[in-house]
Amino acid sequence: MAIKTHIKVQYTDISIMQMDIPVPFPLEQLMKISADDDNGNDLTRYLNIESNRVNYSVAGQYVVPVFLQANHQIINEVDVTVNVLSPAEANNVLPRIEKDTNDVYVERTSQPHPYRIADFIKIKATDRNNQDVTRNIVLNMSQVDYSQAGDYIVIIKAPDDQGNIAISTFHLHVLTEEQVHEMENGDYDNEDYPEDYDEPNETQDNRPPQSNYAPPVPARQQQQTRARKRPKPKARDDDDDDEHATYWVLIKKYWWVYIVLGLVWFTCWDMFG
């Protein structure tokens, strides 16, 4: 008797806003696709998903075949639908993501999983019916390396219970110890990201058109220094800095001249004073 196989898809029809970057999560994660057989054996690794049929930069409806293969033969197949929405359509359909910051700062470390990101940024998601779906939020931090100082983009996925998926991002800045000290003194300024960086799903904060929605800013205590938002750099006079630097270079180079002159002055004072 042949053993039956099963392809399980939580969302056979999903909606996501068009974006100019590659899809930040594999389609099998967006739709939660898996496979098994009657004996409970996990066959997910044998799935073949033709996700290249979806062009996330062009709005439209795409049908994606999902095959279960064994010995180079298709033994089961289902179709799933991906709806790529224009920004106007997305505002009426997709969940809304709220963040209290776009930038998180942490100190470089070699420890694995050293930080709990929820301590540094508050993220909330609500569906089009204003129901809270924050529990569905997933962060893609696969590009973050805490042992390497630099600036990383963390991708936020927030699906509702119908398979409508909102995507957003925030910046995670991994700082050296020196940069942390500069931040403490208000001197740190990150210029690696342009001020007009366009997040993939942040059009009008994902709010419905003509809405009076204004995302609240949570009243919470200031995070420790490593999690502060970018401070305003102090005003500096470059001409004064250059002039002071020149004086110090001369003093360090000709210190012995000043000592000799001092001794001559002291001797003359002792003889004729």
Keywords, please?
273 residues; two-stranded antiparallel sheet; single chain; alpha/beta; elongated
Low-confidence stretches: 192-238
Give me the Rg, rounded. Answer: 29 Å
Major beta-sheet overview: 8 strands, mixed
Q: What percentage of the residues does DSSP assign to strands (E)?
A: 25-35%
Name the helicity range: 10-25%
Structural class by helix and strand composition: alpha/beta
Shape: elongated
Along the chain, the helix and strand elements come as EEHEEEEHEEEEEEHHH
From the N-terminal CA to the C-terminal CA, the straight-line distance is 120 Å
DSSP strand count: 12
What number is the mean pLDDT?
77
Q: Number of helical segments? A: 5
How does the SSE layout of this entry go?
Layout: E1 5-9, E2 13-17, H1 27-31, E3 33-37, E4 47-49, E5 60-70, E6 73-85, H2 87-93, E7 96-99, E8 103-107, E9 123-126, E10 138-140, E11 150-159, E12 164-175, H3 177-184, H4 238-253, H5 255-272
Parallel strand pairs: 2-6, 2-12, 8-12
Antiparallel strand pairs: 1-3, 4-5, 5-6, 7-9, 10-11, 11-12
